[in-house]
Design a protein that fits this description.
Residues 5-234 form the ABC transporter domain. It comes from Stakelama marina. GO terms for molecular function: ATP binding; ATP hydrolysis activity. Pfam families: ABC_tran (PF00005). The chain is of the alpha/beta class. The protein folds into two domains: 5-222, P-loop containing nucleotide triphosphate hydrolases (Rossmann fold), CATH 3.40.50.300; 227-293, Alpha-Beta Plaits (2-Layer Sandwich), CATH 3.30.70. The chain is built from ten helices and 14 strands. The strands form three sheets. A six-stranded mixed β-sheet has the order 6-7-8-3-9-10, sandwiched between helices. The two termini are 41 Å apart.
Length: 313
Amino acid sequence: MEPILRLSGVSKTYDGGHQALKSVDLDIRRGEIFALLGPNGAGKTTMISIVCGIVTPSGGTISVDGHDAIRDYRKARRMIGLVPQELSVDMFETVIATARFSRRLFGRAPDEAYIEQLLKDLSLWDKRKSKIMELSGGMKRRVLIAKALSHEPDILFLDEPTAGVDVSLRRDMWKLIGRLRERGVTIILTTHYIEEAEEMADRVGVIAKGELLLVEEKTALMAKLGKREMDILLVEPLNAVPDALSEWNLSLEDEGHRLRYAFDATAEHTGIPSLLRKLGDLGIAFKDLETSKSSLEDIFVDLVSHRDEEQAA
């Protein structure tokens, strides 16, 4: 199946010489939830802005369901909805007028039933006649979402959608994303709430300093790069890790009551059996073992740190 969105060699260098994107190649599958992770200044918003026609790329091509995003801008842009980080609405306009206007802007015929249901889904129906300037910050964010969805896009970009919002809005947002996915909408989000990407996304992309470091199925990424830790709960505390255990990656925690072993779960030999035998040989008794796997956040930090080390070398 052809991707609904394809970026080929997309780059962006600003007049001052800053390279915000470095030849990004990315295919987004129809109907998937794709999470783009990266620190501030990594190029996430630049990439989204280029696809949405807000920023002009320095090079490369963008295809939106077969439409060239540069040459066939109107058809491509009509398929896309964007929820930006910053508020971008007329503060003196009412909520319902904003949604209606955005729908007309993309050439959609009026559909009052759709607009009503959209505002109800976002808990905005009771505020439909209120001016946006009268709303709370969370309600204003909901208006941005309504504006992005008013023309029934096939692709929805969410740029840090839940940053700084209340728990209620975050919960409603993720429920709405679930419903959109059921309708076949393709969703691309950037987020600092990595646990949300871990829960919601099908695939994860990691970007740093304008370079797309990798794109993986979420489960495959965690299986490939995830590390595990085993905590050995000791009967008697240790003052230091014995020299005889130096070949294992061990650290002492919990005031010497816990011996922590970090290992690669995908390796052919984890070293656990030999470590436990060695503990027995040394007369170090333990009462329990606990294992845990790394989170997506751990993987993300490791990837970015490793790339920084490579560039510094």
